[in-house]
Write a structure and sequence with these properties.
- The structure holds 2 protein chains of 2 kinds.
- Chain A contains 11 helices and 13 strands.
- In chain A, helix 5 crosses helix 6, helix 6 packs across helix 7 and helix 7 packs parallel to helix 8.
- Chain A is globular and about 65 Å long.
- The two termini of chain A are about 25 Å apart.
- By secondary structure, chain B is of the alpha/beta class.
- The chains are: A alpha/beta, B alpha/beta.
- At the A-B interface, helix 7, helix 8, helix 9 and helix 11 of A face helix 7, helix 8, helix 9 and helix 10 of B.
Chain lengths: ~325, ~325
């Protein structure tokens, strides 16, 4: 991805519309660069309104970016549209949504749900091959023995099993990249680890790349090779999972990591510290660095000019004036 | 350190052998079984469990906010030594707000969308404390300042406030009538990490300033570690472990608690490889016989399928597991945390 932008036209107030006043664009994603290698797991971490889900939707081509370029396997796919072109793109890039209750058609059997992508992309020659493919996907997603699930309906499954069915559906078309938007945040703690394990195994077994969207820094650390931290439509810091977790450099990443409750009280030496204030609206973007109104270490310059991303270590970049010298 | 066990001071809240069923057309679903605990003034206790564990039902029973098909089959709840009429909507009324109040998860649903928030905070003051309009509005302004919102913002409608601000309004309302117990039902679950930290900080400060007892219901053990003194872990309608927070994280006794802690990624411990708990939590419709956790438990024994383990006093807390019951001398597994 290069300088990717998604600006939604704001609806504005009724008065603005009546008077045909120009409406400020909602800059959901505003100039981000991000790469995902083959077989790599990249986590995008951010709070609500950071644009992290929008990034996932652009990559899966559910939303057309307003600027910038999207490359897949070296090809520019930014302007790919139309039924057949999108069909072959979706063969290679699949998405897993947060809410497995809504992602599954309640009146379809598990077999039909998992087979849907394979059938519509016409990936198999006959029914035997289809059954084999569905069984293989269910079992990779941890639903064993797979045949037991074929004739069942979503309401007969638990939340964790449903999320596995969603994963199996994405797997069945054998994509090269899966975009998972908060796939575990609705699940119970004991089930969460199961799903994270399934997703990690997919990379090992199938060399699949994964873009994992989450608000939870420890979860991101546990699954990802690299983490990109987003704030108000920008990537403010990107680095390896360990760099971001143990050596965060951007003041926002530091604040995020301090606000994350420590799982172990003995290590929670410093009391939870919280930034003041709230994420501003993307329709009224602060000038200069977007984080400066809440930043505990902001200097005058921060309100004037947007900081560029600078290298702060090997494969580790952050966009903050204090880090440029 | 707060010990889980009887103190000299009398408990402010006692739950004794509480069992509760949800009645459906022709079956009864066992939601709670033999729940017993005490809470002292100023103590912060977390009720932790997965969906269906009974944590919310326990708290709602205490608050007398049971759904019509819930039936208390045994036990009672006492407030300052007196029995609370938990099944009687009308009779509970004098206790709600004044003695105990609840902060719900979805502040957007709990607030009236077409009334300014300051009026919503003033309402319990005039209804329950018999204040005049002016007094109630003055109290509401004080409460807003107390939760870190400027009194002028009180003129806003709920939709004009962010999720964190709405949750602060909910907290202000809960404190309106000087309760001694506040029940928080997943109060930070819908919030972002930084906002969650702000709210937890606020709750901890208020709790100390006002000497409130807090019952925090959550599925998130890591929230507990920072904001509570004591934690009770629930599974399939029973309390399976109860003890000091630091103690439980350091030395979890029940296999479920141990696995639950192991399934949380923890960078500070370098714990990247997660050990998932196999299987799913049992539904209300088919609870396993004996110990409900045995079907997922790595240390299950024959007796676990036959007998329900009692919640027994074990060192500084309580644990319900046959590994520690009187019959077996030595625990069969060593806790490896």
């Amino acid at each position: 991805m290069e300088n990717l932008q998604v600006h939604f036209a704001g609806r504005g107030r009724i008065l603005d519309r009546v008077l045909a006043r120009p409406v400020a664009a909602v800059r959901a994603v505003d100039g981000i660069d991000l790469t995902i290698g083959r077989g790599e797991i990249v986590a995008v971490v951010g709070e609500s309104g950071s644009g992290k889900s929008t990034v996932g939707r652009v990559i899966t081509k559910l939303i057309q970016p307003t600027g910038g370029k999207l490359f897949f396997a070296g090809r520019d796919v930014t302007s790919v549209e139309g039924f057949s072109a999108l069909r072959s793109y979706r063969h290679r890039v699949q998405m897993i949504f947060q809410d497995a209750y809504q992602a599954l058609n309640p009146r379809h059997t598990i077999f039909d749900i998992v087979a849907e992508g394979v059938r519509s992309l016409r990936l198999v020659a006959d029914d035997d091959e289809l059954a084999e493919r569905v069984a293989g996907s269910l079992s990779s997603a941890g639903l064993n023995p797979p045949e037991d699930f074929f004739a069942r309906f979503p309401h007969e499954l638990s939340g964790g099993q449903r999320q596995r069915v969603v994963i199996a559906g994405a797997l069945a078309v054998e994509p090269e990249l899966i975009v998972a938007d908060e796939p575990v945040s609705m699940l119970d703690v004991s089930i969460r680890a199961q799903i994270l394990q399934v997703l990690t195994e997919l990379r090992t077994q199938r060399n699949m790349a994964l873009l994992f969207i989450t608000h939870d820094l420890p979860v991101a650390w546990s699954i990802a090779d690299r983490i990109a931290v987003m704030y108000l439509g920008r990537v403010v810091e990107v680095g390896t999972a360990d760099q971001i977790t143990f050596n965060p450099r951007h003041p926002y990443t530091i604040a995020l990591s301090k606000a994350t409750p420590k799982a172990h009280p003995a290590t929670a030496s410093e009391a939870i510290s919280a930034l003041d204030g709230e994420v501003p609206s993307a329709a009224r973007m602060p000038t200069g660095c977007r984080f400066h109104p809440r930043c505990p270490v902001a200097v005058d310059h921060c309100g004037k000019e947007d900081p560029p991303a600078v290298a702060v270590g090997p494969n580790h970049e952050a966009a903050c004036w204090l880090l440029t010298k | 350190m707060n010990s889980a066990f009887p103190k000299a001071a009398a408990a402010i809240l006692e739950v004794v052998d509480l069992s509760l069923d949800y009645k459906l057309a022709n079956i009864s679903l066992p939601a709670l079984r033999d729940i017993s605990f005490q809470i002292h003034a100023g103590e912060a206790v977390a009720l932790v469990g997965e969906s269906g564990s009974g944590k919310t039902t326990t708290a709602m029973t205490v608050a007398g906010l049971l759904s019509p098909n819930a039936k208390v089959t045994s036990g009672e709840v006492r407030y300052r030594g007196k029995r609370l009429p938990i099944s009687d909507e009308e009779a509970m009324r004098p206790h709600r707000w004044n003695d105990l109040s609840v902060v719900f998860q979805g502040a957007m649903n709990a607030l009236n969308p077409v009334q300014r928030v300051i009026k919503q905070i003033a309402e319990p003051c005039s209804l329950k404390l018999g204040m005049t309009r002016d007094e109630a509005m003055r109290r509401a302004r004080e409460l807003l300042e107390l939760v870190g919102i400027s009194a002028e913002r009180g003129a806003a409608y709920p939709h004009e406030l962010s999720g964190g601000m709405r949750q602060r309004v909910m907290i202000a309302m809960a404190l309106a009538c000087h309760p001694s117990i506040v029940i928080g039902d997943e109060p930070t679950t819908a919030l972002d990490v930084i906002t969650q930290a702000q709210i937890l900080k606020l709750v901890t400060r208020l709790r100390k300033e006002l000497n409130l007892a807090l019952i925090l219901i959550t599925h998130d053990l890591s929230v507990v570690a920072e904001s509570c003194d004591r934690v009770m872990i629930m599974y399939a309608g029973r309390i399976i472990e109860d003890g000091d927070v630091a103690e439980i994280f350091e030395n979890p006794r029940h296999p479920y608690t141990r696995l639950l802690i192991e399934s949380i990624p923890d960078p500070t411990e370098g714990k990247r490889v997660l050990k998932p708990i196999p299987g799913d939590p049992p539904s209300l419709r088919n609870r396993p016989s004996g110990c409900a956790f045995r079907t997922r438990c790595p240390s299950a024994m024959d007796i676990c399928a036959v007998e329900v383990p009692f919640l027994e006093i074990e060192q500084s807390g309580r644990v319900a597991c046959h590994l520690y019951s009187a019959g077996s001398q030595e625990p069969k597994v060593k806790s490896n945390v």
